[in-house]
Design a protein that fits this description.
Elements: H1 2-11, H2 14-24, H3 32-42, H4 47-54, H5 59-65, H6 71-90, H7 101-106, H8 109-118, H9 124-137, H10 145-157, H11 164-181
Length: about 180
């Protein structure tokens, strides 16, 4: 079973060592293959595998990578964050605050995600995934006024995206945000 192999790899110490690299190395020396090793563990796997990765407390390391200048590193990082966030949502009650909200807040993750969203040099896919991450985090929490207009406008702009997953997630996030604010988009 691929999930069993993924769990073995996550528990083997390899992930911990890669997180150590993310924490200690100069950002410019961290290339896409480093983050792709971890990202590959989360592709087409169960929520259980992603939550095992979450148990390693990845956010401080991944959030540091959001300051990277390489779009491929940023894309792999934001992909990984969104996979972990969605798994967190899938395994908790719809009526409760996102289970990773407090940890992301503690590490300044919401501000770092919003800062990435506002960067002009990032590509559309990164911007789309970042808006989805922010929407995911604010499931059952009101989106701060300072980011509400931009995030909601962007999510609305990708409702008809050519990527089916992006299209679906934008609709889900808009629905969740509408319920939280009492405003329907």
């Amino acid at each position: 079973n691929d999930d069993d192999l993924r769990k073995t790899i996550i528990n083997s110490g390899i992930v911990d060592y890669i997180f150590f690299i993310f924490e200690t190395r100069d950002l410019s020396s961290i290339t896409a293959p480093y983050i792709d090793v971890i990202r590959q563990l989360t592709l087409q796997c169960s929520d259980e595998v992603r939550l095992l990765l979450y148990s390693k407390k990845p956010y401080p390391y991944l959030l540091r990578l959001l300051n990277h200048q390489d779009n491929q590193v940023l894309l792999y990082t934001i992909n990984l964050i969104v996979y972990i966030l969605v798994s967190g949502s899938n395994t908790t009650s719809f009526s409760s605050l996102h289970p990773h909200f407090d940890q992301m807040s503690r590490y300044g993750g919401i501000e770092k995600l919003y800062s990435l969203f506002k960067r002009t040099e990032v590509n559309k896919q990164i911007k789309d995934l970042t808006a989805i991450c922010i929407g995911e985090l604010f499931n059952n929490a009101e989106l701060p006024h300072s980011m509400r207009t931009e995030i909601i406008s962007h999510l609305m702009s990708i409702v008809g995206d050519s990527n089916a997953w992006t299209q679906s997630q934008s609709k889900i996030q808009l629905g969740n945000l509408a319920q939280n604010s009492g405003i329907y988009y």
